[in-house]
């Protein structure tokens, strides 16, 4: 996929560290650096620069749609996934008798908005067993009152990749009025998306997409546009923002376009346009074909050391994330940091993330340092 030469050319920071933390922060390729510089050059043109700004937004919309398998008009942008979910709540206007299903593998952004509503719907929790979500456990939660089922295609917590076909089949059969929202933050740019039939797709931009902070991709198919149009205030998402009747009524754009309520964060979209085109040129399928065996090697290496990952990586649906719990994670992480190996350390959990720029040497280096750490750590 990447040769040693092109890897260091595009990602020079990787010459000095072993980086296994893309699920938190990516290392953007040099083309993203140049895109940000181009934004600054365009910004220095003042109002004339906005022509280039808006052109970049449309270019980013086109490549985002391509990767999501949607039409450009079915894709829009906001500032982060938390904003997207609050806008989704505005669109749904759920009542106390309505029901929402979330999972215990979801990121808080997709789960807490329903709990924190002024008139919260009934929230039902789909619990994982042994780190995985089984469709059989979802069935008793679904009914005529279910209005939304919120899932992550890949869990931020442990890397579990949802088995999509039985999931979506169960929802459509048992909850005929339910909409399905899927967080693809930990999938977009790393795995070939397999979430056909989703009503809303949401992804932040600073992880596997190799972009920067301040952006979020929102995808809503046309046939769901009416049901998922926000009721938020603003201006950019309004048809009549500056019309004579603007103080009498607000006429919103439908569907995905309604999620861009204010001025776009142009610099994030310049960066995202560049990073997604970089990923498209390489090919997400090629990224998965390169990185999935590294994940499997990491999984087997952990098990050889007596460590059981929090989720099993299915051979037919590997994700980029592996996590494990250990009573000495702080000590382990300290030794990893000293060896210039970066992973995520949080609440007794270590999480490793393998992207297309990682190599066999990265995995071997991590396992070597971990092995040495396990030999030398002390317990209270």
Q: Could you describe the 3D structure shown?
A:
Strand 5, helix 7 and strand 6 form a beta-alpha-beta unit. Helix 2 runs antiparallel to helix 8, helix 4 packs parallel to helix 5 and helix 9 packs parallel to helix 11. This protein is globular. The chain has a seven-stranded mixed sheet with strand order 2-8-7-6-5-3-4, with helices on both faces. Strands 9-12-11 form a three-stranded antiparallel sheet, with helices on one face. The chain is an alpha/beta fold.
Offer a few descriptive terms.
single chain, Aspartate Aminotransferase, domain 2, 380 residues, 14% strand, 11 helices, 37% helix, 3-stranded antiparallel β-sheet, alpha/beta
Helix content: 25-40%
What are the secondary-structure elements, in order, as H or E?
HEHHEHEHEHEHEEEHHEHEEEH
Report the CATH topology name of the largest domain.
Aspartate Aminotransferase, domain 2
What is the molecular shape? globular
Strand order of the largest sheet: 2-8-7-6-5-3-4
CATH architecture of the largest domain, by name, is 3-Layer(aba) Sandwich
Total discrete domains? 2
Q: Low-confidence stretches at least 5 residues in length (pLDDT < 50)? A: none
Q: Structural class, please?
A: alpha/beta
Quick check: average pLDDT? Answer: 97
Largest sheet: 7 strands, mixed
Q: So what's the CATH class of the largest domain?
A: Alpha Beta
